[in-house]
């Protein structure tokens, strides 16, 4: 059904990979401008989606993700300009090697090629991904959620019009279909699609991971832990707990479980209780002595709530905390609060999560906070990218080898 | 069927990731020594495989891959000692960032975790992979071919005995089964297996790529091209053609197609003809004027022979050569022979193959030749690793973030 579109996208790679830095910047600024100029058209399209959503009775949270406003369009536009200003990763030399036989080998960053993105209700993803792909000379193939159909089509068209006279070929392919079969086609076409990135809820991500034949960069799952060590600064631990859980509970880098060393459990939990008054607590018997809540089950410890809910457990040692994290973590982000740097380093070495913190909130696991400028999501897999997926992570590499007639003995 | 083994392997990661550089070196030297000490036992096991192979009437080529000898065991042992001497990639700091809020972020190399390897007849793969995995603190789960069953079991046992008193946990798991269902289990168990690397023929690799749920590093396919430019040094082009096709035709970095610019076609091909006397030529009409052979079909240009066969085509321009390579290449290795560096750079920029050469044989696409010391294979995918898979490519990364109470605004 979409084979022709996928073929065109793959063919576009050859031309688009050769587009130079200045032209890419010019294209990005043109998009930023056009989004503002065509604001009314985008908002009208968005209104169609909103009307449909109201008819279908979608949740307030989903409605909020879907809704566009002049301010949100302004933010998208500024986001695109920010990507324009980031330094160009393409062509960067990663390493250079001179071999004894005179061969000079350079490893350089190149585009991945075609990047398929399957996502849900937020229309800003359309613009974010397109901007990042343009900056990295990748061709994007976008499949948004049906809830945002009109908004996504309008945004894609506005962007395509903006760059039509600047780029030799369009790097933005929007799949104009709302059925699920096109997703299957997209995620299994190894000939035309180089990588698939799912962005959205667990259902979407698991569907893609389980059914893709194209290599996937898995994103999103975040069952993150905070461990309050016996050597913790308790004031600091309380501030971090509050920030990591409550500043924005719905996101993947928020914590779901607090492990607290028995030596400091009473002080920490007694003081945490009023701060977490509006949070539903699932605790073990020891922690429930100090903070009101209900008994936690194994299932609680294995659940990513993304909500005003928290698991708490008192542990007798750092090793018990590490053991717990190994059992339940999705390997996104974990934090230890301790004044003892040796204990911190042991904890950080022992864990293999993408991000391990000493004395800072897990909420910093974010491309912007890491200084990457723009991000596609948080990778929770071991291959290719881990943690925030910035511009470098949206690149592949190749080796250029310069000789003067070398042959192999 | 093998769930217990996969669970044990995954659990072993936690302990094995903490093993330090010196202990890993000691373990590798112990393996190298034990392989020599237990040579007779290994050769006896190999004889069982050979006897079975004779009964089943396998090909001479397969028999050669299967056969072990004191010399081959000596080579395996030396290979392990060489890996021992390579510098340790684990813990290497890839980048460090200081953020304006005082956070210090370090990206460091860590093990991948469990590495499943599915391979065919060559028993030396058992030792190569185990050594590389020990060096990179990865736990390997090996599934060899049924032809080499007794040899692989003996090699794995000898290695396990060698390290039993040195390592706190065994990082070598050999699947003791010859049926195909265990492969399915291995390549779909996302909970216990972090990455799958297939090593072998196209059938095996395609089976794994198409059926795996675990992330795969694809290896091996090599339809490589040599382009002889109008500005080529013809003597050099002839030497490279000979080396890249004939030095070892059965391997993935040998060339399958020569594209020659019309301006130099007559001289190059006339002189190539006697050098390629024993090679079966498939050419276009123009090339067959100068070198004997039969007409090439599209299928010829799309075939990786790994044999004494070559495709030849005369092109009118470098762009036609690039176009041809884009149509047929598996994106492994391509070479341009030209004295004109600007033309070379254009060619190398335009292609997105893993390795692009100016004036050197494609046979150099190899971990040893690149100076990596050891390699697991040649990656032909865009994600994670491209080209020779050395120790760095067998690592994942994590971020360690050091703070003093930072919370997110």
Write up what this structure looks like:
- Two copies of one chain form a homodimer.
- With 409 residues, chain A is of the alpha/beta class.
- Chain A has 14 helices and 16 strands.
- In chain A, the strands form four sheets. Chain A has a seven-stranded parallel beta sheet with strand order 10-9-11-8-7-12-13, with helices on both faces. In chain A, strands 5-4-3-6 form a four-stranded parallel beta sheet, sandwiched between helices.
- In chain A, helix 3 (39-56) packs antiparallel against helix 7 (149-163), helix 5 (70-85) packs parallel to helix 6 (124-135) and helix 10 (234-246) packs across helix 11 (262-275).
- The longest helix of chain A is centred in the first third of the chain and has 18 residues, at 39-56.
- The radius of gyration of chain A is 24 Å and the shape is globular.
- At the A-B interface, strand 2, helix 10, helix 14, strand 13 and strand 16 of A face strand 2, helix 10, helix 14, strand 13 and strand 16 of B.
- Chains A, B: It catalyses: L-glutamate 5-semialdehyde + phosphate + NADP(+) = L-glutamyl 5-phosphate + NADPH + H(+).
- Chains A, B: This is Gamma-glutamyl phosphate reductase.
- Chains A, B: Keywords: Amino-acid biosynthesis, Cytoplasm, NADP, Oxidoreductase, Proline biosynthesis.
- Chains A, B: It is found in: Cytoplasm.
């Amino acid at each position: 059904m979409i084979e022709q579109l996928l073929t065109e996208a793959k063919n576009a790679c050859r031309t688009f990979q050769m587009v130079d830095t200045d032209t890419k910047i010019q294209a990005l600024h043109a998009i930023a401008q056009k989004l503002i100029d065509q604001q009314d058209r985008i908002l009208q399209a968005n209104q169609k989606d909103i009307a449909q959503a109201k008819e279908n009775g979608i949740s307030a949270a989903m409605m909020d993700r879907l809704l566009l406003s002049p301010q949100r369009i302004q933010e998208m536009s500024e986001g695109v300009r920010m990507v324009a200003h980031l330094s160009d990763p393409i062509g960067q030399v990663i390493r250079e090697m001179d071999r004894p036989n005179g061969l000079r080998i350079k490893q350089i960053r190149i585009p991945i090629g075609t990047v398929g993105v399957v996502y849900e209700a937020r229309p800003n993803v359309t613009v974010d991904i397109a901007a990042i792909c343009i900056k990295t000379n990748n061709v994007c193939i976008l499949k948004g959620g049906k809830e945002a159909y009109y908004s996504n089509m309008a945004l894609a068209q506005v962007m395509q019009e903006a760059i039509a006279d600047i780029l030799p070929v369009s790097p933005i392919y929007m799949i104009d279909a709302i059925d699920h079969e096109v997703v299957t086609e997209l995620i299994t076409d190894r000939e035309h699609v180089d990588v698939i990135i799912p962005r959205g809820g667990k259902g979407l991500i698991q569907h893609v991971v389980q059914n893709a034949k194209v290599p996937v960069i898995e994103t999103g799952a975040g069952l993150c832990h905070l461990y309050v060590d016996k050597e913790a600064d308790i004031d600091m631990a309380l501030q971090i707990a509050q920030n990591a859980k409550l500043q924005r509970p719905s996101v993947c880098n928020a914590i779901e479980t607090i492990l607290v060393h028995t030596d400091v459990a009473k002080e920490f939990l007694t003081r945490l209780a009023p701060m977490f008054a509006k949070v539903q607590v699932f605790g073990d018997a020891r922690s429930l002595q100090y903070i009101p809540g209900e008994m936690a089950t194994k299932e609680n410890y294995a659940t990513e709530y993304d909500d005003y809910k928290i698991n708490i457990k008192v542990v007798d040692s750092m090793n018990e905390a590490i053991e717990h994290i190994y059992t339940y973590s999705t390997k996104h982000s974990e934090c230890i609060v301790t004044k003892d740097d040796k204990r911190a380093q042991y904890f950080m070495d022992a864990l293999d999560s993408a991000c391990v913190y000493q004395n800072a909130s897990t909420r910093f696991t974010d491309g912007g906070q890491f200084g990457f400028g723009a991000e596609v999501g948080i990778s929770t897999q071991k291959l290719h990218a881990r943690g925030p997926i910035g511009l470098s992570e949206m690149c592949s590499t190749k080796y250029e080898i310069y000789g003067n007639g070398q042959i192999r003995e």
